[in-house]
Amino acid sequence: MRLSVIGCGYLGAVHAAAMASIGHEVVGIDVDARKIEALSKGEAPFFEPGLPEILAEGIASGRLTFTTDMSAASGAKVHFIGVGTPQQKDGYAADLTYVNAAVDALLPYLSPGDIVAGKSTVPVGTAAELAPRIEAAGATLVWNPEFLREGFAVQDTIDPDRLVVGVAGGVGVSSRFARSTTGEGDAGGGGVSSRSSLARSTTGEVDAASVLREVYAPAVAKGTPFIVTDLATAELVKVAANAFLATKISFINAMAEIAEVTGADVTQLADAIGHDVRIGRRFLGAGIGFGGGCLPKDIRAFSARAEELGRGESVAFLREVDEINLRRRDRAVQLVVDALGGQVFQKKVTVLGAAFKPYSDDIRDSPALDVAVRLYGLGAQVTVTDPEAIDNARRAHPQLTYVADRDEAIRDADALVLVTEWDEYRRELAPSHASTLTAGRVIVDGRNGLDPAAWRAEGWTYLGMGRP
Ligand code: UDX
Question: Which residues form the UDP-glucose/GDP-mannose dehydrogenase C-terminal domain (predicted)?
């Protein structure tokens, strides 16, 4: 199928390349000429495992092209909108400037029967507002949120754990279709005939959900749940999922705070409660908390939208989730100060990690860099190392010292602070090896990724988050 992807940032670039890799003919469109030039040469503008390979493959096959020219969207059957929705500069709400600009620029190139599929994370109600403009062009708007995790973006796009498509009129239009694809009801009666009978409504309009099902055919064939909803539900699924994940992390970090005043161990606590399948162990990693381009901004935008809707109190807990999260950064800084005898002035502190999480070079709202900057503010000589994110970090915080080589970075350090759990630091840095390089033997484990016993056995002062 011919597809266009408008916005070639993290989401759009991965989506375009992934769609080409499953056989579609894809044009990626962005206003940023430098980004388009790089992508056209097969260069990923950010670090993402597997992306360079599928970019190269798509470009070589002729199925994947990139351009700044919006007219290239003509002739595509589905137009994905994957532009950013950043936090507004003067508040918590999402800035929809790019979504509106993308839709306006696309309108002249839409043909009757086309589908516009929103992928950006937007405040609930955005699709309903956009729909009349798109319908006036004879096209149909659907909302198809993206759940990809950085570092696993290619895998999450090609082989997602669920597909959600919101359509105007929602389940009332497509409920039979939705049930047959999720295995409920209509058993065996789905397939081609059911699909084709639903492919066109009585008014002759194309059933947009069926077209999206074709776009994602390989995943659907593998049994990936394909959930058809109304537009508002699809928008909410995305923010609700991120709100839940953020809440789960802040819940365990709240338990870490209690553990810290009682001598309990939050990692054992997480293991024990995580065995309850209703709770689950994943996302119960206590530490310096969440960051990145999604969770922090999405919970804030959700709060702001709920306020606008007169339901601020329904998600008031998200403010607390945000505050718990930010307090953990203070705690990590305090641990370093305490471990160094009450002050860090002119002490050499090496911060292991700059990215907001491993397998990423993304430093947006990175708790790791926040800790580094605060230590610098207290007068420490801060050296930051990271396998991928140093260039981005240097641009954002040029006052810090950056050393790419891990061993060089820790040489003569008075204290180490693990803030991003790359394997280089978590698994591959042996305490006996570190002892030969550093000046002091103090390590603060901001991700609870290390074995305290192994470090203590080498004579190190080990301090974790919510661990005795
Ligand atoms: C997140 C969602 O997971 C994804 O579904 C959505 O599409 C975008 O937002 P991402 O931002 O890539 O993805 O990162 P994720 O792996 O969710 O981690 C977010 C942050 O939480 C990271 O800073 C990570 O270090 C932190 N985290 C994660 C914890 O502090 N503890 C945990 O147990 C898990």
Answer: 350-452
Q: Which of 164, 167, 211, 294 is catalytic?
A: 294
Query: Are 275 and 369 in a shared domain?
Result: yes
**Overall size of the chain counted in residues:** 468
Q: Which atom of ligand 1 is nearest to the CA of 148?
A: 7
Q: Are residues 166 and 185 in the same domain?
A: yes
Query: Is 148 a pocket residue for ligand 1 (Cβ < 6 Å)?
Result: yes
Whether residue 243 sits in one domain with residue 189: no
Q: Which residues of 117-145 are buried (b: 16+ CB within 10 A; e: fewer)?
A: bbbbbbbbebbeebbebbeebebbbbbbb
Based on the domain organization, do 163 and 300 belong to the same domain? no
> 249: Cβ below 6 Å to ligand 1?
yes
Element (H, E) at 299: helix 295-308
The total number of structural domains in the chain stands at 2
CA-CA distances (angstroms) from residue 337 to 97, 151, 266, 418? 43, 32, 22, 15
Domain residues for 69?
A: 2-236
Q: Helices (DSSP H) in 107-200: which residue ranges? A: 126-136, 153-158, 171-182, 191-199
Domain final residue pick, 236, 257, 275: 236
- For position 171, what pLDDT does the model report? 55
Q: Find the CATH number of the domain harbouring 77.
A: 3.40.50.720
Q: Which of 202, 236, 270 is the last residue before a domain boundary? A: 236
Report the nearest-CA residue for atom 21 of ligand 1.
Answer: 290
Vertex 228 angle, CA 224 and 230, to 5°:
150
Say yes or no: 249 and 227 in one domain.
no
Q: What is the pTM assigned to this prediction? A: 0.92
In the annotation, is 8 catalytic? no
150 in a labelled binding site: yes
Buried b (16+ CB within 10 A) or exposed e, 150-181: bbebbebbbebeebbbbbbebbebbebbbbbb
Separation of alpha carbons 42 and 59, rounded Å: 7
ipTM over 0.95: yes
pLDDT at 237: 98
Tens digits of residue pLDDT in 238-281: 999 999 999 999 999 999 999 999 999 999 999 999 999 999 99
Q: How far apart are CA 418 and CA 336, in angstroms?
A: 11
Q: Are residues 106 and 207 in the same domain?
A: yes
284 CB within 6 A, ligand 1: yes
Residues 20 and 46 in one domain: yes
